[in-house]
Amino acid sequence: MKIVIAGAGKVGRYVADVLSQEENDITVIDSDPETIASVSNDLDVICVEGNAADPEALRGAGAGEAELLIAATEKDEVNMVCGIAARKLGAKHVIARIRDPLYLNQVQFLREALGLSKIINPEYECAKEISRILRFPGASRVDSFSKGSVEIAEHKIPGHGALNGVALRDLGSRFGARVLVALVERDGEALIPNGGTVLRTGDRLSITGSVMELRRFFMAIGEYKRPVRHVMIMGGGRIAVYLTRLLQESGIEVTVIEKERERCDTLCDLIPEAHIVWGDATFSDVLLEDGIKTADGFVALTGDDGDNIITSLYARSCRVQKVVTKVNHEHFAEILNNSGLDSIVSPKETVAEQLARYVRGLGASEGSSMETLYRLVDGKVEVLEFQVREDSACTHVPLKDLKLRKDVLISAVIRGTKTVLPEGNTVIVPGDHAVVVTAAGHLRSLDEILEPGA
Questions:
Q1: What DSSP string runs through 428-440?
Q2: Exposure winner among 279, 370, 430, 450, fewest CB in 10 A?
Q3: Which run of H or of E encompasses 276?
Q4: Mean pLDDT, residues 106-114
């Protein structure tokens, strides 16, 4: 698929990398010559120096022939103009990154008025991810499917944990919860497990189930943590604003510490119910004075990965129950794997998942049914949600009789408001939503989980 990406900042560059790995024809346009040179050296994409708001520059980048243009510059208004110009030039689909909180309630209007296929807001999506993690503090990551009726929670087995030495076939009888372990990450390798898989200390599990069953499971293994009631946020950027609003809707008290005085004044207007503190949260006395030892949640959201990491480690030393750290550079996330900071979030990775799903939907057959996509274990494993169509080859056949590709697991079936954990005799029917875990490559449709010719 021919895709033009306007803007090669953190998000645009990362998205270009992810989508180019899926055999798309990528062209990147950016006005900064040094940025273009860097992208050209690092990625297998076509690079064009030019202004993304200039129709002639877009024409030179091939926007008129593009099946998709992604406007991802640093400025919302430039992305809007770029989107309008691309549509006029003939781009079939246009996605624009629009980040300002003032536009959050105008998404539908802007889409229709500007002729956009989709609007993405990495900061808002990241805030939603953090909100899910804080709502379920026993997990290091929580991904939601079918509007929250099913979740997949990531959990690392601690030393002397109750799961050490347990075979997956005994999980239900041992702990009395209806959950399914969909993925085991062990020593950096991803394993799609079966009933005979025996869990070990240090394994990182991805566990599927309803919210109620997941909580029951975490209580049974002694890893359930009390609900978060007071969250301290370091950094007062856009993510902090979105996250504060989401948390306050759930009745959670929020303190935001921001070191720029003018930004503090702005935050008082944007989130008036929050406690806004003017100070530098990298200093321990500031955190102590504002209640770090009584907070049960801490979120580091500054633009400096080093500050976020060091301050998060300090919050852990203060026995804060749940710590979430924003990290922009992926190599930091790898280093932190065994540091105790297991809840790492990245806005660019969040939006890349959304765009990968959208692109695969465009590239699949008419009526593609993919609705959700998450990437795990550095992109080695994907979790996808498909709506089951009438003509699917996976319907009306017991799962035990389906010839699934290697490294594919159906981890949940959602039927209306009911969540079904699959067994051999489970039958998928049209209208269901199927959650699939795969390490077998990039799936575009549900029927691709079957062996070719099956």
A1: B-TT-EEEEEESS
A2: 430
A3: strand 275-278
A4: 86
User: Which ranges of 197-346 would DSSP assign to H, the alpha helix?
Assistant: 211-220, 238-249, 261-270, 284-289, 305-317, 330-335
Q: What's the Cα-to-Cα distance from 208 to each of 33, 83, 288, 420, rounded to whole Å?
A: 46, 38, 38, 11
Interatomic CA distance for residues 357 and 68, integer angstroms = 13
Instruction: Please report the pLDDT score of residue 355 as a whole number.
Output: 86
- How distant, in Å, are the alpha carbons of 19, 197, 374 from that of 291? 43, 44, 35
Q: pLDDT tens for residues 268-322?
A: 999 999 999 999 999 999 999 999 999 999 999 999 999 999 999 999 999 999 9
Distances (CA, A) of 367 to 119, 371, 388, 442: 21, 11, 11, 18
pTM: predicted TM-score of the whole model, two decimal places: 0.84
Contact 412, 180 (CB under 8 A): yes
Task: Take residue 173 and report the two structure tokens written for it.
Answer: 């009888």
Strand partners, 275: 255
Tokens representing 87?
């549509």
User: Residue 351 in contact with residue 150, Cβ under 8 Å?
Assistant: no
Q: Residue 338's closest CA among 430, 208, 447, 202?
A: 202
Give the range with max mean pLDDT: 42-46, 98-102, 350-354, 360-364.
42-46
Q: Which two tokens stand for residue 235?
A: 């950094």
How much is the pLDDT for 179?
A: 92
Q: 140, 117 in Cβ contact below 8 A? A: no
SS3 415: strand
Give the pLDDT confidence of 334-384 residue by residue, as tens digits. Answer: 667 667 787 999 888 888 888 887 887 776 544 457 888 888 887 789 899
Q: List the domains of the chain with CATH numbers.
A: 2-120 (3.40.50.720), 230-345 (3.40.50.720), 349-449 (3.30.70.1450)
CA dist 63 and 72 (Å) reads 14
Q: Report whether pLDDT(151) > 60.
A: yes
